[in-house]
Amino acid sequence: xxxxxxxxxxxxxxxxxxxxxxxxxxxxxxxxxxxxxxxxxxxxxxxxxxxxxxxxxxxxxxxxxxxxxxxxxxxxxxxxxxxxxxxxxxxxxxxxxxxxxxxxxxxxxxxxxxxxxxxxxxxxxxxxxxxxxxxxxx
Amino acid sequence: xxxxxxxxxxxxxxxxxxxxxxxxxxxxxxxxxxxxxxxxxxxxxxxxxxxxxxxxxxxxxxxxxxxxxxxxxxxxxxxxxxxxxxxxxxxxxxxxxxxxxxxxxxxxxxxxxxxxxxxxxxxxxxxxxxxxxxxxxxxxxxxxxxxxxxxxxxxxxxxxxxxxxxxxxxxxxxxxxxxxxxxxxxxxxxxxxxxxxxxxxxxxxxxxxxxxxxxxxxxxxxxxxxxxxxxxxxxxxxxxxxxxxxxxxxxxxxxxxxxxxxxxxxxxxxxxxxxxxxxxxxxxxxxxxxxxxxxxxxxxxxxxxxxxxxxxxxxxxxxxxxxxxxxxxxxxxxxxxxxxxxxxxxxxxxxxxxxxxxxxxxxxxxxxxxxxxxxxxxxxxxxxxxxxxxxxxxxxxxxxxxxxxxxxxxxxxxxxxxxxxxxxxxxxxxxxxxxxxxxxxxxxxxxxxxxxxxxxxxxxxxxxxxxxxxxxxxxxxxxxxxxxxxxxxxxxxxxxxxxxxxxxxxxxxxxxxxxxxxxxxxxxxxxxxxxxxxxxxxxxxxxxxxxxxxxxxxxxxxxxxxxxxxxxxxxxxxxxxxxxxxxxxxxxxxxxxxxxxxxxxxxxxxxxxxxxxxxxxxxxxxxxxxxxxxxxxxxxxxxxxxxxxxxxxxxxxxxxxxxxxxxx
Lengths: 138, 664
Description:
The complex is a heterodimer of chains A (138) and B (664). By secondary structure, chain A is of the alpha/beta class. Chain A is built from five helices and seven strands; from the N terminus they run E-E-E-H-E-H-E-H-E-H-E-H. A five-stranded parallel β-sheet of chain A has the order 4-3-5-6-7, with helices on both faces. Chain A is globular and about 30 Å long. In chain B, the strands form five sheets. A six-stranded mixed β-sheet of chain B has the order 14-18-19-17-16-15. A five-stranded mixed β-sheet of chain B has the order 6-8-9-11-10. Chain B starts with 10 loop residues before the first helix and ends with a helix. In chain B, 43% of the residues lie in helices and 22% in strands. Classes of the chains: A alpha/beta (138), B alpha+beta (664). At the A-B interface, helix 1, helix 2 and helix 5 of A face helix 1, helix 2, helix 9 and strand 2 of B.
């Protein structure tokens, strides 16, 4: 699903992985190696994620909910408050698997919701599904 | 499983990260324990602790360490409830959390060693779950400062309470705005680094990202507003965050009717409580004060001369007395400015003890009692490693294992006490005690192949012998750091203090250091004159000249009892040359001698001495009320031979020698 730019040049799929745990980010990236042509950017906090999103375009965000500065919910709310980020797919990946967290994340605007521990196949499938839906909109 | 993902690949990273979070959790628990005792706000620690446990839980779930997931889950649930309802924990609650974290650490260790991981203890899980029942009421969360509505909306009741409590304790609430840009990112300036720098200086309550109109100030249309509590100046924060001072909006207490915050007046309200000063600047100030004291001596002499000539100098003498007192106070104030609070110095010790206790599997509680004791920075820097060594010894060799203690009828938890008391005058007493097994004199004696020490004094002499170790087996820390001989050397030789020990078999050991609270340290010339060595600060000497009789001419015979004054011819200049030995009534050595040339502004003079011994950094203990009482002698030092060596102020000596020599 690499994005096509108007010069018909294949542009890498830019994925932002947001989690305060480095190992967790690496695990997610390792799972997503199955996605061809993806490039990964790490963000270790919600604030860093927001900063990176303001500085460069991304195609997909994996987002943890509990982070040192501001939580994932707030990040989702912030992203959805930006005109140019309204359509950005966000996959929440969290240890907080309760229904409350799920519905709060989804109503804030998360595209999908997964719980830790996750299966590698599931995360790739989720990424494919979300990106597919996104391109259908374009 | 998908190719490229293998859980075992992450075990090393998992252990390293979990270890880090466990360390952080311990640190937060220690702070929490203190907060409970001091009835202080807990929110920050609760939150940090929550985050640590939450990450541990998530990571452990990925590598399938279920008992850890279960424990971390129960613990974080309590913390979340307490945070949301702003209900503080009590001592029992904190102890339960400690137990929980310990239980996690134990299981992580088993996992690391490849052993089966014990299930989570059910009684602990139940006890922790019971903590969730919050018994407090939600605080009203009415903020006592003005915050822009868009920020206010983002603050939870607990965060409002945190702001209110900070303000109530005299902190300032400030708003720091940072707007990221690719250029700033290239300079290493991101919200992460800004947050770190601000966090080092202030307590960050909340960071709110705000969409703003794109402008040169906010090129990416994003501004982070950091709401912080700070003791420090707004300027320091502005520098840390790389934002203009004008971007800092002090939040003044809200008036009853809600006016918009007035930027100008709120900026005026920012005052500076603490500044950082380079110690060298303070030393420089002390140095200048010394010159002031010398010129005061001359003034005193001039007044005395006037009086001897029959003038009425009563008013002048009264002024001189006042001047003397003021100089003394000024010197006291400057010395005081170099002091660091012991409390601050000892902050790192509890964590260290926790860590060592965890490694050794012992149960140790640390009690620190530093009250308001303060210590000169130079002394503190030299003393601290010695103090750490004593604490480490207490954990490793003092406190017995929990089993041994139980068998002896002692509480399982050993206690290490670090006590710091200000003694009269310039002395600080610092003791490290434990309620462990005490030092086995017979064993130490056997090890050192020496007679069994009869009392504590002999015991100290024995254990501070270079190279002696009482360790039974080499442990992880042995061979590192320093031995007891170094502790004694630092305390006694370097700092001019005293070291003593009190040890009773079965009851414990206490080491006590008595240290001068202030010393100064500088590079110096060491030289001999007659049978004695002396020291002068390097900075006061312009040059050292080998004396040769051709360069020296005798001046007209001076008055009785004066230093014999001669002239040293140097670079076509006539420099008054004083004989140091005659000033101190010492017998000068014959043969080749040297002269120290001192220059201050345009005046030069020289002192002849027997011979130079070299350069050396010395730690100088001021003599009681120095300078004022003994002109020319600023203090004493130990050059390593155990004997006091006088530190001279040649300028002041010249004052007394010169005035006598040139008087008609």
